[in-house]
Records
---
Amino acid sequence: MTFINYASREINCKIVYYGPGLCGKTTNLQFIYDSTAAQAKGKLISLATEADRTLFFDFMPLELGTVRGFKTRFHLYTVPGQVFYEASRKLILKGVDGVVFVADSQEERMDANIESLYNLEENLRTYGYELMKLPYVLQLNKRDLPNVIPTDELTTELQRKGEPVIEAVASTGAGVFDTLKAVAKQVLTELRKA
Amino acid sequence: MPNTPMVILESRFHHIKALLARLRLDSSARLVVLVDKDGQQIAVHGELGDLDTTSLASLAAGNVAATGGMAKLIGENEFPTLSHEGEKESIHICVIGRVLLLVVFDDRSSLGLVKLRSKQLSHELAKVFAEIEKESAAARANSSLPFNGITDEEIDSLFSPA
C-alpha cells in the first residue's frame, strides 16, 4: 500500500520479487544494493538460513529521487522461493504495490516457474488483489546458462497480460535495473490514476 | 482494488508525533515507533542514535505477520501484543488496526508500565487512524493526491542519470 506523508513529503511503495526457489530474487536485490550510492539506500536485511536460502524475506529501502517535491522511496522485498515456505511467502505480499516475477530460464525449472506463478496469483487473490490489475513485470533470469529455453517460448508460457518481459543475468546485473525501472514506472503511473 | 494509498496530512502527522512523545514520557521509554502493518515507518520519537528505524519497521511488521500467521493456525485471529525482552533493551509491540505501536525500552522502565501506557494510547491512535482513513478516501475522491496527473516525463526524470 502506497503511503504518502505530507509532513516529511515522502511517498513509499512496496515492490515484491516473487519466483521459484533459486531463481535469483535475492541476487537481484543484492545487485541493486551493491550498485546503489550509499545515500540512496538503507540496509539490506536478509532473513536467511545458514545455507543462505531465504527463510522469510530480504528487504532494502531504495530512494529514487524527488518528483513534485516528494521523495519517492521503494521498499524492495523478496519472498522465500522454496515450496514449503508457503505460509511466510504469502505474508510478504500483503500491501504490495508492484510485483516482479523472476523466472528461471533453465529447461528443468519450467515446471517450478509455472507452479510459482500459479501460487502468486492464488496468494494475491487471498488479499483481494488481481495480478491482471497490479503493476507487474516478468524477468527471464539466468539467460547466460547453456540449457535455457528460448525467450519467445518462455514468454508464451509465462506472460500473463502483456507485461514487460526483461531478459536478465542477475549475477552480473544485466537486466536488473531495467526490471526495477519497469515495475517502478508502472507503480508511479498507478498513482496518477489514484 | 483494496490497495489504496494512505495519506497522512501534516497536521495529523504532528498530532501523531505529539501522542508518541507523550507515550515515551509516560512510559519512560527509549524510543516509540509507529509502523504500518505492511512495514512502512509512519512516525518515530525518542533516542534514535544510529538505530536503523526503517529496518526496524520492516522487521516488526514481519514479526507481527509471522505471529499473526501462527495465531490463525491455532484458531486465534491475531496476537494483539508482542513482547521481546533482552538483557538490556526490550521491545513491546501493540497491534492497533492496521498500524503497530512499537516501544523500545531499557531498565529505566518496565514491561508492565510500557504495556499499560501503550494500551491507554492505543484507543486514541485508533481514533486518529479512523480519521486518516476518511482523509485518505477524501483525497482519492477529490483527485488531490500529489502524483495525480503526473506526466511520463516526470516519472522518467526519476530514472535518468543525475
---
Amino acid sequence: MSTATVWLVIAGCAVVTFAIKAAGPVALGGRRLPDRFTGVVALLAPALLAALVVTSALADGEDLHVGADTAGVAVAGVALWRGASVLAGVALAAGVTAGLRALS
Amino acid sequence: MRAGVPFALAGVLVSLSFGVLAREAGFPVVAAIVMSAIVFAGSAQFAAVAILASGGTAGAAVAAAALMNSRFLPMGVALAPSLPGGPLARALQGQTVVDASWAMAARRDGTFDRWLLFGATAPQYLTWLAGTAIGAFAGDALGDPRDLGLDAIYPAFFLALLLTELRDGRARAVAAAGAALALALVPVAPAGVPVLAASLAAFWGLRGRA
C-alpha cells in the first residue's frame, strides 16, 4: 500500500464523514419533526449503541466468534452495570482480554 | 464540558489503539494523526484502516467508512430541529456529533441540548488527537495491540454509553432487538450495514407504545 493511497483514503473518509454529519441538519433546516418521529429518535440511541457493541465485540469481518475480547467486554459490562466509571470499565476490558490471551 | 470528560479519558485508550493499528497497517505517523483530526469518527477510522491492512482498495476503505458513519444520518435528522442558523452553520454544528455526546445531549422529549453536545465533544476531540499521537509514536514500543487487549476497549466504551440509555423497559427491548438484528446481518451484509439496520428497531419499539 502506497503513501498516496493512505492520503487518498484519509481525504475520502473526511469528505464522506463531513457530508453524512451535515446531511440531516442542512436538509431538514429548522423544521420540527412530527411527534411520532421524535419518539423514534429517543429510541435510536439504544438501538444503534447495542448494535455497535455486539458487532465490535463479536464480529470478525463476516464471522461471529466469541474470543478473549468478548469476555473482557462482558466483565467490563458487569462492572459498569454496578457503577464503575467509564475509564475503569474500558481499562478492565483491556486488562481481562490481555490476561486471557497471555494465559492461552 | 464536564459531561464529556469520562468519555474523553476513555477515548485516549480507544484512539491510542487506533494509532497503533494505523501504524501497523503502514500509515505514516503524521497520516494517523491527520486522519483523527479531520475524520474524527472512531468506527469509520478503524474500518478503513482494517480494510487497507487486509489488502482492500482505497474505494472499499472509504465505502466502509461511509457505511460505518451512516448511523450519523438518523442522528443528524434527529438533531436538526434543535440547531439554529443557515445551511453552513448547521452543517458545521452537525460535525460535533459523536456517539457519546449525541446520546448525552438527547432529552427525553426528542429535542437536543446543543451546548451540551458541543461541550461534551470538545474534550473528546482533544483526547482523540492526543491518544492517536501517543499510539502512533509509541506503537512499535507497545508491541502487538492484541496482546494488550486494546481491541476490547472500543466495544467496552460503547457498552458504557449504552448502559446510560437503558432507562426503561422499552429502551431495553429496543436495544436487544437492535443487537439481534445487527448480529443476524453480520454474516451476510458489508461492515456498517448491520449497525445502520439496527435503527429499524427504534421504529419497532415505538409501535409497541400505541
---
Amino acid sequence: MALHLNLLHEEIREQRQRQRDPLKIGMMVLGALGALMLLYYLWNAYKVLEIRNRLGQAQHDWAKVEPKVTAAQKRSAELNGIISTTKVLDGMIDGRFFWAPFLEKLSRCVALNAQLTGIDGTVQDDGRISVSIDGLAAGREPRAAAEELRQLLLEQLGQSYREVKVEFKALEDLDTIVNIGGSNQSMARFGLNAIFSTSSAKSSPTPGPRTRNR
Amino acid sequence: MKQIQVKLSKDQFQKLFLSAVGFIVLVYVYFSFFLGPLSSSRDSALAQIDDLQGKVADSKSELTKTAKLEKQAETATTRFAALKALSPEGAPIAWFPPRIKTFFANQDIDKATARLESNSAYKEADLASWTRYGWVIELPQADFSTLGRAIAALENGEPLLSITRINIKALSEDPQSQQVTLTASTAMVKR
C-alpha cells in the first residue's frame, strides 16, 4: 500500500471551516429571508396602492354626492319641522272653543219675559268652559221663568257639549213690577253658573270660508 | 437510527448566536417598520372605503326619502305657508289692533279697540319660532246678534286666534246694546 501524505490538510480544513462558517450560512439565510420578505412587502405595498386608488375613487364619489345629501338632510329636517309644527298648530286650531255657537244657543233659550244683563265666560285650563249668566225674569211666577231658562239652557247645551251643569248661583225676587204686553208682572233677578266640557263632543264653528282643504 | 453529532467550537457558537440575533432583529424591523404600518394603512383605507360606500348607499336612500317626504309634506307646506301668512311683517302691536278695528267695523261694530296684554314663548319645541300674544279686545257698544255674527266670522277668519274669555254687559242707557270685552290669544310667527 502506497503511503499517501496529505500535505495540504490544514488548508483543506480551513477551507472546510470557512464553508461551514455559521455566520456566513446565517447571513445567507438572512439574505434569502430578507429577499422573500421584501418581495412580500412589495406585493403588499402594491395591494395597498390599489386600495388607496379605490379609496380615492370612493372619496371622489362621496364628494360628488355629499352636497346633495347635506341639502337633502337639511330639507328633510325642515319638512319634518313644518309637518310637526303644522300638526301642533292644527291641534290648537281644532282644540279652540267656539263662542259663536254657544252665544247662538244661549240666545235661543232667552224667552220674551227674560233679559240677560251680563255674561262672563271663560275657557279654563283643563278645557272646561265656565259661564256666569246674570239676568232678570218677569212673570206671574218670575222664579219659574228663571227656572225655565235654566232648564232650556241645560237641554240646549247638552245637545252639543258634555258634562253640562247649569245651576243657580242666585235667585231673588225684586220689588219692581214691569208691564209686559199690557199686564203688570213681578220680577226676579237670577244668576246662573254653567259649566261644561268640549273634550269629547266639540262644537263645530259656524260655517264660513276656510283657507284649508281638509 | 444514526445520531449526528455536530460539535461547534466556541467561535462557531458565537457566530450562530449572532446570526440568531440578526434574524430576530430583521423580523422585528420588518414587522414593526415595514409590514405593520403598511397593514394599518391598508386596514384604515379599507375602513374608510367601507364607511364611504355606506355613506353613498345611505345617501341614495336619503335622497329618495327626502323626495318622498317632499310629496307627503305638500299639504302641510301649503297649510304652514297659509298660517304663516296670517302674521304679516312687523311688530304685532303695530298691525293687529288696526286689523281688529277694521274687522269689527266691517261687521258694523264701531270703536273696537285691541290692546296687547301679554306675550310669551310656547313650551312646545315645535313652536319655537312662534309666540303667543294675549290681547284684550273691547267693543263698547254692540248688538247681540251682530256680535254673534262678528265673533263667528272672527273665529272662522282667524284660525290662530282663540277667545279665552268673553264678558258681555248690558248697557243700562241702551238696553239693545252690550259692552263686550274679549280676551284672546293668538299664535304669531316671530319676526
